[in-house]
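We were asked to recover a plausible sequence for a given structure. The inputs and outputs are reproduced exactly as logged, with field labels preserved.

PROBLEM: sequence recovery
POSITIONS: 321
GIVEN STRUCTURE:
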């Protein structure tokens, strides 16, 4: 039987990935600091533990797996990554996880491992305009990420590729661009823009207002979770290492995203712009290399993902109140 290890299986992407692999007939082991928050795990075996501990890594990576997915990281949205207070923890914790997981995989002859990097690796100077950001994969150097989160991701990319060269491992490095959907963080300070805006719209009475950080003209693209998993598993089973972007090319302003969510919710709200952490001015996924190497392209429109995500967050808000 095919087997998979999902590191970070208690998180948003990891918990959805476990479900996907189970549907494909895998025996799945998950590991994380906690169980998934919003639904019971579907993993055959789930270990609650800290991957910063090399002994824990040796315990969970006790055999060769058909596929290993390393999604575990200390991360969050702009309100967590860009305020500066969490930089040491972000770099230390995520680097320790990657060092331990890779070494444990090497010792147990696990050859096939996916690493979830981030669009945050791209240079700040290529993303200073809202309408014309550059995220073609080769432009990552000369390096100047806009956060220590991005610097750690870039270091870890090189770590995985070094293990591939030196230890005959088959790594796959995917740079995620703003993955969203149900069963993700929505009110704990680590939520990303789609979840935060869905929450704000759900909380507001029709005719009221919501707050937007900055002028709202900063641009991003957002990829729905199902599309992310399809892109990830196709890439994992290819014969190419990457790094490669995994995201949507449907760029939108934050104001535009808020208006899209309001339309889905059937509410008319005023946007009040306030100071807050922003990140780069513009960012969009460049999918040309993925489409060339893998032969598949993202097709789901952002609005469809919002239509699936907003009702879930609205339900969470009602349940918690």
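RECOVERED SEQUENCE:
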């Amino acid at each position: 039987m095919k087997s998979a290890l999902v590191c970070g299986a208690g998180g948003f992407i990891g918990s959805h990935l476990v479900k996907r692999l189970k549907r494909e007939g895998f025996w799945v082991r998950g590991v994380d600091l906690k169980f998934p928050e919003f639904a019971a795990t579907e993993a055959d075996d789930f270990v609650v533990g800290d991957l910063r501990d090399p002994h824990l890594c040796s315990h969970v990576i006790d055999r060769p797996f058909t596929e290993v997915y390393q999604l575990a990281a200390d991360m969050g949205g702009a309100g967590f990554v860009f305020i500066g207070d969490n930089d040491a923890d972000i770099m230390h914790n995520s680097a320790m996880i990657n060092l331990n997981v890779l070494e444990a995989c090497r010792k147990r002859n696990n050859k096939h491992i996916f690493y979830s990097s981030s669009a945050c690796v791209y240079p700040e100077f290529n993303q200073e305009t809202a309408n014309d950001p550059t995220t073609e994969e080769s432009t990552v150097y000369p390096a100047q990420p806009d956060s220590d989160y991005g610097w750690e991701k870039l270091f870890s990319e090189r770590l995985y590729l070094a293990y591939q060269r030196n230890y005959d491992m088959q790594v796959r490095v995917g740079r995620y661009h703003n993955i969203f959907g149900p069963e993700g963080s929505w009110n704990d300070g680590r939520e990303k823009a789609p979840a935060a805006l869905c929450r704000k719209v759900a909380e507001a009475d029709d005719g009221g207002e919501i707050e937007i950080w900055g002028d709202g003209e900063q641009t991003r693209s957002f990829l729905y979770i199902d599309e992310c998993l399809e892109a990830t598993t196709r890439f994992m089973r290819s014969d190419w290492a990457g790094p490669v972007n995994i995201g949507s090319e449907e760029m939108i302003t934050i104001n535009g995203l808020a208006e899209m969510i309001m339309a889905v919710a059937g509410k008319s709200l005023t946007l009040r712009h306030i100071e807050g952490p922003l990140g780069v001015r513009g960012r969009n996924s460049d999918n040309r290399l993925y489409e060339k190497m893998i032969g598949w392209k993202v097709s789901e429109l952002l609005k469809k993902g919002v239509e699936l995500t907003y009702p879930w967050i609205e339900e969470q808000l009602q349940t918690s109140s």
